Amino acid sequence: MNNCLIRNVIKNQCASLKKIVLCKNAIIYTDCNGRKYVAKENGENNIINTYNYLNSRGFGYLPRLVYYNNDGYVYEYENGITMPNEQKISDIIKIDALLHNKTVYYKDISLDEVKEIYENLNMKIDNTYNYYDDLITVIESKIYASPSEYLLLRNCSTIFSCLSFCKSSLDKWYEIVSNKNKKREVLLHNNLDTSHLIRNKDNILISWDYVKRDLPIYDFIKLYKSNYNKYDFSELYKEYLKGFPLLEEEKILMFIILFIPNKISFNSSELKNTIMVSDLFNYLFTTDKLFMENEAKNTEEQNNKVNK
Fold first, then answer.
1. Is the Cα torsion angle 106, 110, 115, 116 positive or negative in sign?
2. How far apart are CA 172 and CA 94, in angstroms?
3. How far is CA 126 from the centre of its chain?
């Protein structure tokens, strides 16, 4: 990748280089006048198509593109000011809500597509239930449980409770969506992270290599799963809903996906096992808190309005 970028992209944009810094997925270089640029290899998505589309929709939180060919592209390097990550992620949520607002449209959805989503999630829920049921059975058959196994035994009801919630919610989702012939799709950034927001005069969101069109919930899901233990997602979720209110079926589907726990696999390090189990339940408790503070409260308010 590096040689191709330097030879076919960077040299075409800048004949005389002063400095080159190799990064994980990019090259940062400085020209003879001291101007800095970022070069990246083209991925599956055509960056020009993404830029043209977002500009046509009035979304301007993009780095300034200065060169493009079939091998890669170059944009101006921005020196961001130092700011707390809590503020960064709040800005990211607001920008993401704006992105979804600018790119939302309704698309036909067939009953077969709805059934496929339902069956795939139902299978995932059942597989996860069976996995943990078998794991608990094995641990209970032992004379002595290790600290990590004991921690799992003490809290396993939380796993099964979450999966039961997912089952009932999935039936509710299917009932709602099977009576509709449209779904909402947006352009997803699909790689949100505090390291991808640069604040200068304005906010700039970088790393647009993985954009795709899908339901709006997936940007939040991916960001939450990577950062649930770092920030107050209850407030971030409220902030997102202010900018882009989700439909009832979208909210239901989002929490189904969030509540399905990952399958843990014990290894030879008991310390790592204990941390892994602890992280699993921390994730589920945090997700339950997010749900109770937002969706459960909203459901209660809606029921009170209906009763009145």
1. negative
2. 29
3. 24
Burial class (CB in 10 A: 0-12, 13-18, 19+), 191: middle
Domain boundaries, the chain: 2-76, 85-307
The DSSP H or E segment spanning 243 is helix 233-243
Topology, domain 85-307: Aminoglycoside 3'-phosphotransferase; Chain: A, domain 2 (3.90.1200)
Sorted by sequence, the CB contacts under 8 Å of residue 157 that are 6+ apart come out as none
For residues 220 and 257, the answer to whether their CB atoms sit within 8 Å is: no
User: Phi/psi zone of residue 258: left (φ > 0), alpha (ψ -120 to 50 degrees), beta?
Assistant: alpha
Note down pLDDT in tens along the chain; length 308 residues.
Answer: 577 788 888 888 888 888 888 888 899 999 988 999 999 988 778 899 999 999 999 999 999 999 998 889 999 998 888 889 999 999 999 999 999 999 999 999 999 999 999 999 999 999 999 999 999 999 999 999 999 999 999 999 999 999 999 999 999 999 999 999 999 999 999 999 999 999 887 889 999 999 999 999 999 999 999 999 999 999 999 999 999 999 999 999 999 999 999 999 999 999 999 999 999 999 999 999 999 998 766 655 555 544 44
CATH superfamily of 2-76: Phosphorylase Kinase; domain 1 (3.30.200.20)
C-alpha–C-alpha distance, residues 227 and 88, integer Å = 13
Determine the Cα–Cα distance for residues 271 and 269; give it in Å rounded to an integer. Answer: 5
Comparing C-alpha atoms, which of 87, 104, 57, 84 is closest to residue 239? 87
Question: Beta strands 197-199 and 182-188: pairing type?
Answer: unpaired
